[in-house]
Each structure stands twice: as structure tokens, then as C-alpha cells.
Amino acid sequence: MNELIEVKGLKSYYPIKRGVLQRTAGYVKAVDDVSFVLREGETLGLVGESGCGKSTLGRTLLQLAKPTDGEVLYLGTDLTKLNQGRLKPYRRELQMIFQDPYASLNGRKTVRDIVKEPLLIHGLFTPQEREERMLMMLEKVGLRAAFADRYPHEFSGGQRQRIGIARALMLRPKVIVADEPVSALDVSVQAQVLNLMQDLQEELALTYLFIAHDLSVVKHISTRVGVMYLGRIVELADKASLYANPQHPYTKSLLSAVPVPNPKAKRERILLKGDIPSPANPPVGCAFHTRCPVAVEICSQRRPELREIAPGHSAACHLI
Ligand code: SF4
Fold first, then answer.
1. To test the ligand 1 pocket, which listed residue (232, 251, 319) has its Cβ within 8 A of the most ligand atoms?
2. pLDDT 10s digits, 116-134
3. Does residue 320 form part of some domain?
4. Same domain, 179 and 257
5. Residue 300 Cα: closest atom of ligand 1
6. Predicted local distance difference test score (pLDDT) of residue 24
7. Domain containing 302 — which CATH number?
8. 77 and 119 co-located in one domain
9. Residues 306 and 233 reside in one and the same domain
10. Span from the CA of 304 to the centroid of ligand 1 (angstroms)
């Protein structure tokens, strides 16, 4: 598979302002030196607890937020260096699906206007063609043409997410960053939306960065999976390798919480102590050492780098 996007040393820091003078008292390191590639046609699942920086990473990759440092190479062009004007054609190719479709859809607009809007913004096609494309897209995502005149509040959560997906696909993008697209949905509806996303991926040759907070959601849909902790990727591997043979202690703890289909197959639950530390004040050394069940002395002194430990399988841990 060809590399579509290469992320190199990406950092997103946000200043913490204090006092009347609003002096910068430190930085929240939401994304801290992240590198990976996204290959054409794959789904890279990105998993971690809330606050680990995965959503910021997704937004920064799409240039919805400018990074503090690092590069986002899309077919060789560094998007971080482009101004808004030069970025516009790339925005067509890189789209986002949001977690809460209700919040991301304008409640005062009909489905017709919401789905057609991206074409209008980019000045594409005649009014007649826009209407036809909108109707075609509604059908593709499993919504009836009669729904075009309704408003977002008239739909269920799953239908609203279908509207969000239809809107994101109108510009025929190549890459979709899906930020927890099924987290707000009932479990019964989650599978339907995931299946729809998979069908659309095949039909439209899409590449997904699929963000989720637990490993069970991304298991079915992903080609590879990356696990994030406090702004960094701590493990990245092919799906089969990650689920069958997790190496990083944090991945092991996340996996131990995933229910197994066979009740006789016992898996010991690894409970982590405490909460995820603040990204404004991450622990020195390995950021996971304050919660790691197997931490040793060096873990609080030196930060382990993400390195390849087997073909296609990388992890950041001193003990591996
Ligand atoms: Fe645990 Fe140390 Fe490995 Fe970090 S480097 S995951 S603290 S064993």
C-alpha cells in the first residue's frame, strides 16, 4: 500500500495563561512528538483514554488546528506550511466525521442544505447537479430522499451520523478522520454505522484514521492500530499482531478490559492505579510509569522511544 500521509514529529502545545497579565505559565502538551504513516486504503485505528491527545492529533492532521512543530506530508506536500488559500484544494481531499453529529450539524438547516453545503463552499457544480449529488449521497448512506426536507432534530443518533457521513463525502475526499464516530450511539446502532463506513470505504476507495477510546470498537474496522498515552503513540502494529500479541503494558491493560466472546477463555483484568496524569505536567521519563504495573527504576528517568520490535510492530517501553 502506498503512503498517503506521513506525520513527522508532530507537536501540538497549548499555552496555559495565568494571572491578570495572562502570562504563559506552561504548556499543555496535547500531542508530543508523534510520527506515523497512513497508507492508501487502510484504516488506522487510534485508541486511548480521553485527554490522551488523539482528537487533537486528528484535527491537526487535517490542519483544523496548526501544530506547534512537525510536518504533515500529504503525497509529499507539507500541509503545515500552506496558507489558507493554498490549503483549500487539499481540504476537499481530507474530511472529518465528528463524534456528536447533532452538535456538528446546523440545526436550523435542512438535510438538503447541510449535505449540499460543502459543494457550495467550494463553488462546485450547477444547482441541479448539486441536488442530484445530494440525493445520490443520501441513498448511499441509507437515507431516503424524502428526508432531505427535514431538520437534524427529527432524526435518531444513527441517522444523524449518516447525515454527517454524507456531508463529509460530498467532496469525494481521499482521507477521512473519524473522531469517535460511534461513541455517542447505542451499541445496536454502532455496528450499523461501522458496517456502512466499511462499505463506503470499499466503494469510494477511502482511507480512514479512526479515533476511538477503546480497543473493541476499532477491532473490526482497523487494518492497523495505534495506542496513544499522554500525547504519544506507545504502540503501533497490524491489527492481528496487536490484539494477539500486545507488547506495551498500557496496551495490555486496555486489552484486558475488552470482553472476550468465549466466556471460558479467561483473561485477567489489569486495573491501572490512578487517573491519566495532566498533559500540562506529564511525568518525567516514561509518561506511563506512575501507573505502570511493571515499572522499574529507569522508567522514571528516561523516556523510551517508539521503535520497531518486530516487522510492522513498534512499541515504546524499556522492558521490550
Ligand atoms: Fe512501564 Fe517502564 Fe515500559 Fe513505561 S518504560 S511502559 S513504565 S515498563
1. 319
2. 999 999 999 999 999 999 9
3. no
4. yes
5. 7
6. 85
7. 3.40.50.300
8. no
9. yes
10. 8
- pLDDT tens-digit readout, 223-276: 999 999 999 999 999 999 999 999 999 999 999 877 776 666 666 788 788 788
Q: Does the predicted model carry a pTM greater than 0.85?
A: yes
Q: At what angle do helices 111-121 and 157-169 cross, to 10 degrees?
A: 20
Output the CA 23–ligand 1 centroid distance in Å: 35
Among the candidates 133, 156, 172, a domain finishes at 172
Question: In whole angstroms, what is the distance from residue 246 CA to residue 236 CA?
Answer: 10
* Atom 3 of ligand 1, residue of closest alpha carbon: 317
The secondary structure of 159-203 as a DSSP string is HHHHHHHHHHHTT--SEEEEESTTTTS-HHHHHHHHHHHHHHHHH
CA 126 to ligand 1 centroid distance, Å: 58
Question: Containing domain of residue 121, as a range?
Answer: 104-172
The SS3 of residue 270 is: coil
The alpha carbon of 29 and the centre of ligand 1 are apart by a number of angstroms equal to 20
Q: What is the pLDDT of residues 171-205, one digit of tens each?
A: 999 999 999 999 888 888 999 999 999 999 999 99
Q: 235 alpha carbon to ligand 1 midpoint, in Å?
A: 12
